[in-house]
Amino acid sequence: MSASILTDPRFARSDGEKLGNEITELCGYIYAATCHLLELIREFDDNRYWAELGFQSCAHWLNFKCGFGMNAARERLRVAHALAGLPKIEEAFSNGALSFSKVRAITRVADETNENYLLMVATHGTAHHVERLIVQYRRAKKLQDAEFVNDLHMKREVTCYYDHDGCLVMKARIPADQGELIVKALEMAMDDIPAEITEEPEPIAARRADALCEMAETYMNNSENSGSTADRYQVVVHVAANANPGGRQLAGEPSLENGPHVTAVTSRRVACDCSRTVIKEDENGEPLSIGRRSRSIPSPMRRALKARDGGCRFPGCSNHKFVDGHHIIHWADGGETCLDNLVLLCRHHHHLVHEGGFDCKRSEDGEIWFEDRKKRRLDDFPTAQNATLEESLAWMYQRFEDKDVSAVTSAAKWYAGERMDWDHAVSLMFPAVDEP
Questions:
Q1: Which of 185, 264, 374, 421 could in theory staple to 247 by disulfide, Cβ–Cβ 3.0 to 4.6 A?
Q2: Can you give the residue range of the structural domain that contains 101?
Q3: Closest by alpha carbon to 356, among 297, 314, 306?
Q4: Average pLDDT of 209-219?
């Protein structure tokens, strides 16, 4: 940090101003360091160094080694590669003049034709100005795009998750024509369900929920689907064996597989018409054995394996849906099909263990670990020493001292009271059309 900034009387009017100058200057250094970080990530990804450690992608490596969430890791990768084709924006970023928020927004639409214009807006405007300009430009561009309908179709989605109270929450984004079809189907199902006679009529939203369940059950009972016994179509409820007749659990609570706990009343209702799998567990809840010895993994044992592992056991992998049961000691080498000799692996890591030079081992006390192609345990790699805050700041100031970062480097040139003409700003991003 420049000593002149700390001693210049212009920056010593109050403690608040001195602290503000220190914050804004530090932000400039952080932005320069962030640009350097993205350059390193881009080089790391271009050379596929993450593949040497068995990771599926650079984003998975960033998630495991750097603590980024998967969405944040993918976003940084996207920005890092986009900056390779935007030299002027990358230079401003590396000098601490642009924040990551501005650069992230710009790189969604920037190319060689509008780089100068977007750099001007980002330099003079706030992050709000940049993000709003990009949003409005993308909206205007979509309305002019003949592929807009196809884009809507590609972005259709239905997401669901369990809320804190155990209820399933669903959110759908569906093109209008298909959405209207679903609405009509819900209305038909509502008409077929007799309304309960109560003092207060049931809310429409509640009746839609009943109609949706009726539609799902009708489909499941369809003659073409009712004979399916695949595990993916089963609703699995885990219930402890020592539940008393009254329904209260003596140990553990009934719960959906990959879902929340359910009430004892719910578990008793499900148990009226279901199949049962008995899993022997030790005092810690660890599944021990199930079924007979065979080369293929029977469905009950696969469910027990999934209950134990939850998903792929390979370090850094978060895949829990498309997984295979792997024999730690192969069947051909005398390995048995029992839970002690099985581990869940996703398709990518299952391939690495069999054909990619990696290995999976288990000790006598049950510890499972993986080795890379050099026979190194994946959790035994040396880690860097933790630096103190003072050491980190000293390195950053020294590393980027040639960037001439100050308290005003990343500040917007916008003045309060000025308003941006959004229609004009968006129109400037479209190429000029010659009048006929």
A1: 264
A2: 3-144+390-427
A3: 314
A4: 83
